[in-house]
Amino acid sequence: MIPYLAWILLFVLAPLILILYQSFTNSAGQFTLQNYVTYGTSWVYLKMSLNSFWYALLITIVTLLISYPTAYFLSKTKRQQLWLLLIILPTWINLLLKTYAFIGLFSQTGSVNQFLTFVGIGPKQLLFSDSSFLLVASYIEIPFMILPIYNAIVQLDPALVNASRDLGATNFQTFRKVIFPLTLSGVKAGVQAVFIPSLSLFMVTRLIGGNRVITLGTAIEEHFMTTMNWGMGSTIGVILIVMMFIIMFLTNDRKKKHREVMADEKETL
């Protein structure tokens, strides 16, 4: 346990403590609460928080709408492992490389605009827009939504679905009453895996969204790398961590854990 505890202490707890300490200091290193007061009273920071939550919510909804049908049909196809490999494969590529690839696709001389010119629509301004940011961010996050939903669907007992249909339920009723409730744990895990990282996106917002998309991740980067106001940057980081813990609490599958505890107790007895 010593290497594991040392890793947790040095690379998890120590950075969190350092960020928390920096959030209570000013540029001179003196203790102050002004950073939190500024954050709570400034409409600029509150708007950034709303923008971060809104874009993270949109990315989560888009990925969920795409991922759930994909995971469901994937569980019914042959060669599932091959399809899973193709879905996981883009995650092996560096995020920066994928972002620059989309810059090449969406630029004025990129493949997309060349196709639009070929069909007579003409080149369009695709980069530095909300839609391009949502598209690229959703593409990056989709595998992290598909995998937990797929695992939940695969673990679903087919006898329950067959029983629902034998009792006269339609396909939609079976999905609404049986399949979706029993795979909700996978949906919650996917929401955690997508929503939480989407709150702190800054590379995609900067390169794809330009200055049109401003989030808390962008603000943290700005304070640490440009204005050198580490105190305010750390304060925003603490707020972001608190928001992440709230999302984890709200999407935590407490019923599943309760069932696992009860099962363990029964086995013990």
From TrEMBL:
Alphabetical list of Gene3D superfamilies matching this protein: MetI-like
Keyword Transmembrane helix: yes
Membrane spanning residue stretches: 52-75, 82-106, 126-150, 228-250
InterPro entries recorded: MetI-like (IPR000515), MetI-like_sf (IPR035906)
Record-annotated ABC transmembrane type-1 domain positions: 49-251
Gene Ontology terms describing biological process: transmembrane transport
Cellular compartments per GO CC: plasma membrane
Record flagged with keyword Transport: yes
Location in the cell: Cell membrane
Alphabetized UniProt keyword annotations: Cell membrane, Membrane, Transmembrane, Transmembrane helix, Transport
Pfam families (alphabetical): BPD_transp_1
Topology versus the membrane: Multi-pass membrane protein
Assigned protein family: Belongs to the binding-protein-dependent transport system permease family. CysTW subfamily.
Protein name from the UniProt record: Spermidine putrescine ABC transporter, membrane-spanning subunit
Organism expressing this protein natively: Lapidilactobacillus dextrinicus DSM 20335
